[in-house]
Design brief:
The chain has 13 helices and no strands. The chain is mostly helical and about 260 residues long.
Length: about 260
């Protein structure tokens, strides 16, 4: 899997500032016709991005009852890791999401609850979610995750962010140390966590970037970033929307 081409701080800028930047980047000598075409493309991209956000945009796991999903609480960060671990496996996205929901209902986003859980209890929870193919090794991985979070990060994965000095490349390296999370899992974590860890923005995973191109917003992550006004939460919602469109095969809505 490829890493994000580059990352920008998640600070939101005003629409006027961004428009000024775009104006300054206009090539000298460009014809009025070229300028008009570029403006039309920009407006088309904005409409498509707004449609994606309106129809499919939401923060990851926001429908699972987690309190304040836009906040970087220890529980929310751990929940996103659980999500990355389960949804990166070769299993249907419906079963993977159902299993994540079961983990959340069991309270495993709380490190104390996860630490106290037994291998058999975790296996039972995964079985309820239909995660039968990988339940044994995933139950073991969840136990290893609990130990890593407690021993290396004092029970709070926000310390991973601190240890990485908010550097996206280092965050990816440290996240990949978690057993059960490979390149795809790291991509999933990065696009879902950029809403609460703005230093990860802008990021769209390679599979969803293909969907972005199919939907008509192109594959230039920085152009997309400017379209959402360099807002990391909206970038997160858009990346999540693209994933939903890809998994549910709804690209036709935008072509």
């Amino acid at each position: 899997m490829q890493k994000s081409s580059s990352n920008i701080a998640g600070k939101k800028r005003s629409r006027d500032e961004i428009d000024d930047d775009n104006t300054n980047k206009q090539p000298q000598g460009a014809s009025k016709s070229d300028t008009k075409k570029a403006k039309a493309l920009d407006e088309s991209m904005k409409r498509t991005v707004n449609k994606l956000l309106t129809n499919h945009g939401s923060l990851p796991l926001s429908d699972l009852g987690l309190p304040n999903p836009s906040s970087a609480t220890p529980e929310n960060v751990l929940a996103l890791v659980l999500n990355a671990m389960l949804t990166s496996a070769r299993i249907s996205h419906e079963l993977a999401f159902k299993s994540v929901k079961c983990l959340i209902e069991a309270g495993y986003q709380d490190i104390k609850t996860l630490t106290r859980s037994t291998w058999e209890e975790r296996t039972d929870v995964l079985t309820r979610g239909g995660y039968t193919r990988y339940r044994e090794k995933t139950s073991t991985a969840l136990g290893d995750l609990a130990q890593l979070v407690v021993e290396k990060y004092s029970g709070d994965l926000n310390h991973l962010l601190s240890k990485a000095n908010s550097d996206p490349t280092r965050i990816r390296e440290l996240t990949k140390e978690i057993k059960g999370i490979g390149n795809v899992g790291v991509d999933i974590f990065c696009y879902t966590a950029q809403g609460i860890w703005p230093c990860l923005a802008p990021f769209i995973d390679p599979r969803s970037m293909k969907t972005a191109k199919q939907c008509g917003i192109g594959d230039d992550v920085h152009a997309i970033w400017r379209t959402v006004e360099e807002d990391s939460e909206n970038m997160c919602k858009l990346a999540n929307a693209l994933t939903k469109v890809r998994l549910e095969k709804k690209e036709g809505e935008f072509t």
